[in-house]
Structures are given as structure tokens and as C-alpha cells.
Amino acid sequence: EALLVLHEAYTELDMTELADDALRVLEYNEPDHPYFTGDYGKKSIWDRLWPWGDDD
Predict the structure, then answer these.
(1) How many domains does the chain have?
(2) Domain range for residue 36?
(3) Of 37, 40, 50, 54, which residue has the fewest beta carbons closer than 10 angstroms?
(4) DSSP secondary-structure letter at 31?
């Protein structure tokens, strides 16, 4: 998640090279991350913080 925060921050600061680097590092380390598979952001923050709930 920290790399996604960096990506968003660098994008807002128009530092596109650093934003791209953050995504590249994330993809290298976690190629199946929900951000790349299209599942990112589908769960609410509460669902992510409470992993023992129902899987919808």
C-alpha cells in the first residue's frame, strides 16, 4: 500500500518518473497485487481492516 501512496503523491506533484518507478517496484514484488488485477478498491476500508468478516 505504501508504494501506491507514493505513486499517488508523485503523480499529484507531477513527478511522473518517480510515480512510474513506484508502480514498477510494486509490480516487480507483487505482480498479482489487486491494483494490477483490477480488484483494487473493491472492498471497503472496514472490510480490509477486519479480515475475519464474510467474503462477499
Answers:
(1) 1
(2) 2-49
(3) 54
(4) T
Half-sphere exposure of 55 (CA within 13 A, CB side): 0
What angle do the packed helices 2-12 and 16-29 form, to 10 degrees?
160
Report if residue 56 sits inside a domain.
Answer: no
In a domain, 8, yes or no: yes
Amino acid at 11: T
pTM of the model: 0.64
In this structure, are residues 22 and 3 in contact, taking their beta carbons and an 8 Å threshold?
Answer: yes
Residue 42 maps to a domain: yes
- Determine phi and psi for 41, rounding to 5 degrees: 85, 5
Whether 26 shows a pLDDT value over 70: the answer reads: yes
The residue with greater pLDDT, 52 or 19, is: 19
What pLDDT, on the 0 to 100 scale, is given for residue 3? 92
Q: Is 13 within the bounds of a domain?
A: yes
